[in-house]
Here is the input.
Amino acid sequence: MTVGILGGGQLGRMLALAGYPLGERSVLLDPSDSACAGHVAPLIIADWADERALCDLADRSDVVTFEFENVPGKSLSYLQNHARVAPPARALEVAQDRLHEKQLFERLGIQTGPFAPASSRDELLEAVQKIGLPAVIKTRRFGYDGKGQALVRNDRDVQNAWDKLGSLPLIVEAFVPFAFELSAIVARNWQGDVARYPLIENIHRAGILRESRPASPKITEELTEQAARATDRLLKELDYVGVLTIEFFVTEQGLLANECAPRVHNSGHYSIEGALTSQFENHMRAVLGAPLGDTSCHVRSAMLNCIGQMPDRDELAAIPGVCIHDYAKSPKPGRKVGHVTVLAENIEELQDRLSRARAIVENATDT
Ligand code: AMP
Here is the structure.
């Protein structure tokens, strides 16, 4: 069968690659002729709103999915009239607007930090007054990798944030003094079967994910149960099909949901080598209506993102258990151009290999 994928970035590339061993093909649509998934599968180069191209994608696909979160909701609604689409358009709509997302979390009893919307300067001042400082001001839409947000500690920061971000509708969130961050990745197929990956500890810097550690020693049974309750509620509410991720802050009061992603997630890249079935393969299986694969991990692993430019490949290759993924993207400050997964038999060995790999990756990182 053929899976149509909206978006031709590295997530689309890894989805397409995961399909081949199963005998499944992909076709992608992306506005950029240099989209890196185009190296591994046929790429339709067209604007998101190009209805002829969307029809072409639908005609060539048994099911259509997406790897890019800012696909216009209209394009997905249009596609729904021409093809089977998963995850559902509503999941994308919710995830595209931080306010709707947090309101849905609240309605489902998934705990979040305090938040308030703001569409004018007066509303912003009122929202900051209500939430208190420090706070994080974010654009409701189109933010990623720390873009479209500002940490504010005083009135002057609030004014600067308004000058920078105020042309778009905003959300003010209380700054959460978290102990650490984690993500929960689950897959659900059309039949309603659910597969859960172990929780992943995530380390961000400047709003960009740097490192992910599945099944980290910090992850307790209690956290795993809380996260499972949250993902179950969201899967059910959205009648979800595909891979779904929720990112959480771990605090003294337990888990606070930060955001959800209706797609495969950067923190799940370790699963290509670190789990029996990768998140990419399970997304393909889920949207195709196939049985889901085993998500358990047979080895210790951790993932490092390569930001800006790829690190020295020979140096990395000298470390045992290192798997290099180069997305073949042109270097650019702040851009995710690849990742490295480090595998080991035990925690001590993982720490040793990880710190060696981290030094090489950091050396090439520009932010
Ligand atoms: P986001 O785009 O919402 O995923 O934010 C990127 C990163 O910024 C998060 O993973 C956190 O490290 C940090 N961050 C975002 N919102 C908050 C918040 N309300 N409190 C503390 N840190 C935050």
Q: What stands out?
A: The chain has twelve helices and 17 strands.
